[in-house]
Amino acid sequence: MTTTTTEPTAAGPGVPAPAPGVPTPPGPPAPGRGSGGGGAQPARADRPVRGVPRGALGVVDVLVLAGAVLAALSPLLPVYGGSVLLAPVLGGVLLGVAVGVLSAWARWSPPVTTAVLLAATVVLGGPLATPDQTVGGAVPTLASMVSVVRGAALGWKDVLTLQPPLGGSGWLLVPPFLLAVVGTAVAVRLALGTSRAAPAAALLPPVALAGAVLLGTHTTVAPVAVGTATALVLLVWASWRSGRLRARRPVALVLLVALAGAGGVAAGTVVDAQRDRYVLRDALVPPFDPRDYASPLSAFRKYVKDDDTVELFTVQGLPEGARVRLATFDRFDGVVWNVAGDGSSRASGEFRRVGEVVSEQAVAEADEVEASGTGGDRVEVEVRVDGLTGVWLPTVGDSVSVRLGDTEAQSRLRFNDATGAAVLTGGLDEGLTYTLDAVVPAEPDDEQIGSAGARDLDLPEPQGVPDAVPSAAGDAAREAETPVQVARALEQTLSERGFFSHGQTDQGDYPSLSGHGADRVGALLGGELMVGDDEQYASAMALMAREMGLPARVVMGFVPGADEDGDAADAAQAPAADPDAPVVVTGADVHAWVEIAFEGYGWVTFDPTPPESQTPQDEQETSQSDPEPQVAQPPPPPADPVEPPSDDTDQPQTQDSDDSGAFALWQRVVLGVAAGSGVLLLLLAPFLVIAALKARRRRRRRRDPVPLNRVVGGWQEVLDLATDLRRDVDPVATRREGARALDRAFTTAPEPEDTGRRKSKAPRPVAAPGPAGAEAGAAVVALADRADAAVFGASTPTAADAREFWAQVDGALARMRAATPRKERWRGRVTTRSLRRSERRRARVAARAVRATGTGGRGSGRRERRARRADGADG
């Protein structure tokens, strides 16, 4: 008596183990969502990694892919400034893992997975990517959801056009958050879905890496180490998941690891050495050019006329005696002082787009000043714009960061590293508020500067300099020995010998023309009497300093609290009780001064304007009361005062034309549509991948070099479409049996599908068959007969036979889709049911069928059915 030993097998516990050499019969199909009230459906293909539990395999997949996505996004660290990127990226990866695992566990279809992923991204994107729009940084709000949606469309443009480091204001963190959550979710879902699609998940981290590199800068985080580690891990994991990696082949394993490591090191070295690596931000040039706007120095008298009747802006936290910079000019063209735009990074007219943080170098220098306690004071100043117009943004000292209260205004901020000036494209809006984190440098005195030389700077040469400038500069600095003594002599000569007047004759001022061009400076220095205000004296001293070889520039700004002599108010006049009280800046606080650069000390301020109390009228009265022959009396004022030209005193209007505004609007629309298309393409990526896999499978079958294989592949295409349309066929049935089953499925009303729902829920209704179903069934039956004739016939099919067969296949597929309700038809296009079958197993069945039939003959059908049953695949 022979005892049969039972062991646990793939078919289930208690099933007798097959004898050696006997093919293992297929076990009962696993229960699932089959058609016909919980019937059987083809079992899901076993994973190729043997000996590894399913749970452990999923954990390895999640850890490898999540780590690869994190490493792929590391090039964005320098873009955002480091730690600010950790929350959106880590949170996005965890959120993507959660959605991918839940989708695989619940076996959601791609549309359901996309909807869940989209909802989770919008809701949870607030605490992770836009925390400033949430309650307490953790509770999402409607504003945070809107910011995530707008950031998905507009954030990419801001990331590319803002100058790093970007910080985390507004929706700037939304793009890396989307890369993390979408890349991780798609990769995990593919890895946990089917064994055939699992290796394709290794492509998602490189895609995320490509996006991070394009959005990044030329400086990355350890490119050699990151590239090598990522490539090595993904290559080994993909080989292992596809079943092609065997530990019993040590030589091949060592070669694979060495090849991956060498390739990663070589690629990383090339990338690291390629200093001109292409990044998208290099191809995008901000369209702002300050030279398209009139120089604000030409509107100096406009601010003077407003005096204290118009509140320009309010500043809070400004140190006592500190100056507010509006604009800096280093180019003189004979008419006005303006900014230079020679294309270099040091040009005063080259404004780059920045985020909250101006630059990493500015942060490092500010931290050093604050730690040492020397070289200046670290301050935080709050500014609110009231009546100030134009594009120039008031700044204080050396700015470290500029945080605007409006996200849209933050995107319009531009900064110049050479001068420290800032502009807001589109102009200032009343009520605009922003916070400046800056360092107010300590001003060195003449003794500290000593014999320090002038800095060698590449400043534009002045054009159209009047002849009076060289002679006046030589006379003033005749006895000076050091550069600082030359600068101080020029300042004292203008301040002590000149007279002050704004030219407002209706208010009793001495006549004085506005402007600071060559004619006006020549009249100031070459006339019998020097009369003017900050605009003329600053321009004259800057030109005189340039003649003496000193790098000089003109600055226009405001000095709140200055007395009538132009000096800062003393401590007694300042509100000592509340030094942080808001200070209202008006036109009476407008000033212009000169800055000269010295080696080791930077730019030093000089005020050549005479005190406001030093007027020609006062000097004339003093001379008449104490006449002395040796003192030259100033000439009497002319009988008819000369009114200043209205063109010079008016504030220049520099509004953009309608055409440029329309172009900017269309540009924003195009960029928004492009960004939205990119997001839509990213969300549709799973569906596109599924369609591409099915198209590749169909093309491979139709173009097989063996005509017989084309015929077999055509019938498999029919079975795959039936599987996608949820009309499954017994995997061990012959072609004619399968065709008759499909004929019954299309011509008879199927029972409602049992999906394991609660009994309280009504079953899903199924559409009744119609004439299209009968046509589909007849087409499938005819196709099965012709396939059997081609496979088991006496002659081998030719290429022409295969083409005719595939034409009949196309007709049958079209009739099958026409006989299916629209909802089921569209779901069949995006489902992965037919992709879950092992392509390798179907290939072996086809090969055995060809070998078994040969040129035809008896027993060929029996041999094919035996091979088909042995492999458990559909024929």
UniProtKB/TrEMBL annotation:
Keywords: Membrane, Transmembrane, Transmembrane helix. Residues 1-14, 763-772 have a biased composition (Low complexity). Residues 15-31, 632-644 have a biased composition (Pro residues). Residues 526-610 form the Transglutaminase-like domain. Pfam families: TgpA_N, Transglut_core. The chain crosses the membrane at residues 56-77, 84-106, 112-130, 168-190, 197-215, 221-240, 252-271, 669-693. Residues 1-49, 445-471, 604-659, 745-772, 824-875 are annotated as: Disordered. Residues 824-845 have a biased composition (Basic residues). InterPro entries: Bact_TGase-like, Papain-like_cys_pep_sf, TgpA_N, Transglutaminase-like. This is Transglutaminase-like domain-containing protein. Gene3D superfamilies: 3.10.620.30. It comes from Cellulomonas pakistanensis. It comes from the Bacteria.
